[in-house]
Specification:
The protein is α+β, with helices and mostly antiparallel strands and 161 residues long. Helix content is 27%, strand content 24%. The longest helix has 17 residues, at 119-135.
């Protein structure tokens, strides 16, 4: 009985008197981003289709890489090796400029019409742009990007990879 009494006294004495507080929100969870650099030697992630699903392909970058140059590589289609591995694209090869404004919100702007692009093709663009922005230390707010062209203004798109 005496041991039980001592244990109860110790438990009461160990209470510090601080009242519990509710969980406080501290904003969104941290994300991993590469430090900002000039793009030299940066690996490039391009999103092509593999078995009907959007999948990343990594290419080494040995020159300064920009988001625009990454999207131009995407528009050129998969390499012969990537094609042999089963990668395809839904993006037609077409001339015309592509610009990306980091935002917020980030926006891909085409100087030529994009109406013939499929949903899978738009998804390839969005996933590649988000990866390219992240590689340069940028980000897309809420993981969304707007797509704009002379013939269409798409609502915010997310990467469905």
């Amino acid at each position: 009985m005496k041991k039980l009494l001592v244990l109860a006294v110790l438990l009461l004495a160990s209470a510090c008197g601080i009242k519990p507080t509710p969980v406080l929100g501290a904003g969104p969870a941290p994300t991993l981003r590469n430090p900002v650099n000039d793009g030299s030697g940066t690996d490039v992630s391009l999103y092509f289709l593999h078995d009907g699903r959007v999948a990343p392909v990594t290419r080494p970058g040995s020159f300064p890489v920009t988001v625009e140059s990454t999207l131009s590589m995407l528009m050129a289609g998969p390499s012969l090796e990537e094609k042999a591995d089963g990668y395809t694209t839904e993006l037609p090869r077409r001339p015309g400029g592509i610009t990306v404004s980091p935002g917020p919100p980030a926006t891909i702007t085409f100087s030529s019409p994009i109406r013939p692009f499929t949903g899978a093709g738009i998804n390839q663009l969005v996933c590649t742009a988000i990866a390219a922005l992240a590689a340069q230390g940028g980000y897309a707010v809420d993981g969304t990007i707007a797509v704009s062209a002379p013939d269409v203004q798409l609502p915010y798109q997310t990467c469905q990879a």
